[in-house]
Write a structure and sequence with these properties.
Layout: H1 3-21, H2 24-27, H3 40-46, E1 51-56, E2 59-60, E3 64-65, H4 72-82, E4 86-90, H5 100-106, E5 114-117, H6 123-131, E6 136-140, H7 146-159, E7 162-167, H8 170-176, E8 183-187, E9 189-190, E10 195-196, H9 199-205, E11 214-217, H10 223-231, E12 236-239, H11 241-244, H12 249-258
Parallel strand pairs: 1-4, 1-12, 4-5, 5-6, 6-7, 7-8, 8-11, 11-12
Antiparallel strand pairs: 2-3, 9-10
Bound molecules: the ligand O=C(O)c1ccccc1NCC(=O)[C@H](O)[C@H](O)COP(=O)(O)O.
Ligand LARABZUK binds next to strand 12 and helix 11.
């Protein structure tokens, strides 16, 4: 069993427990359910500066604890003020130490779109994503069929959520890609070996549709990395650890935003 299999097995139990507590009907009555979403895709397309989706990530299966000393409200607000195109908040607890409450606590303090970073395997979670105040949700091709990706994307769009579809390799692209997704993300982390290289995004860029809005995810640690990725067609970057390993993650983002891209 690889780490994704373990996460998905745990997620199935979590979703079953949540369904027993709150019905979809109850989720649709939560205050944020009717909030108008903010478009990350539009912000990435129109940004003249590098489009950075800055992640709040306390821990991860590959790195263990990264930073458990900072407050989500302060970091999310700081990221937004420093120029992030969107904020990514991990809401998975067992593997990433995140919570639904993290996203709900950040929401009133930011005007940036928020990505709910979790492992969506059931339509119920899409309603939950909307109810807690997110604007964008992640779908991971490695754990979904094409039918699920198509259906979940439609449900998300009907609720006013945008979709970031994540692939890791060409096979996942061929099997899971649909042009209806708002953003296509290439993850540089090989989850079987936990090896991370931006060369993965560079290599895959050759087979991805030119007209599709694309971001590169994981293992981006310098503005030089971003410059190389921009050169092959990426409009945005999902960056977690590089910011979160510092006491003031937003100050690190600010450095990225102000450094010249070479
Ligand atoms: O980060 C992990 O160890 C991990 C393990 C299993 C599934 C997903 C995982 N990471 C999620 C991500 O995609 C990253 O948090 C995100 O792309 C940011 O990456 P980084 O900048 O390297 O923190």
């Amino acid at each position: 069993m690889n780490v994704l299999d373990k996460i998905v097995a745990e997620k199935r139990k979590e979703v079953a427990a949540q369904k027993a507590l709150f019905s979809i009907d109850q989720l649709t009555k939560m205050p944020d359910f009717d909030r108008s979403g903010i478009s990350t895709a539009q912000r990435l397309k129109s940004s003249v500066l590098p489009g950075i989706i800055s992640e709040f990530k306390r821990q991860s299966p590959s790195k263990g604890v990264i930073n458990d000393r900072v407050d989500v409200m302060k970091v999310a607000k700081g990221y937004c003020e420093a120029g992030a195109s969107a904020i990514s908040i991990l809401t998975d607890e067992p593997f990433f130490g995140g919570t639904i409450e993290d996203l709900q606590r950040a929401r009133p303090h930011v005007t940036c779109p928020i990505l709910r970073k979790d492992f969506i395997i059931d339509e119920y979670q899409i309603y939950k994503t909307k109810a807690i105040g997110a604007d964008l949700m992640l779908l991971i091709a490695a754990i979904l069929t094409k039918e699920e990706i198509t259906h979940f994307t439609k449900v998300a769009h009907d609720l006013g959520l945008e979709v970031l579809l994540e692939i890791h390799n060409e096979e996942e692209f061929r099997q899971g890609y649909i042009s209806e997704v708002d953003i296509l993300g290439v993850n540089n982390r090989d989850l079987k070996r936990f090896k991370t290289t931006i060369q993965n995004s560079i290599d895959l860029s050759e087979v991805l549709p030119k007209e599709q809005l694309k971001i590169s995810e994981s293992g981006i640690s310098t503005t030089k990395d971003m410059a190389e990725l921009i050169a092959v067609g990426y409009k945005g970057f999902l960056i977690g650890e590089q910011f979160m390993k510092h006491d003031d993650p937003a100050a690190e983002l600010k450095k990225f935003m102000t450094e010249e891209l070479v």
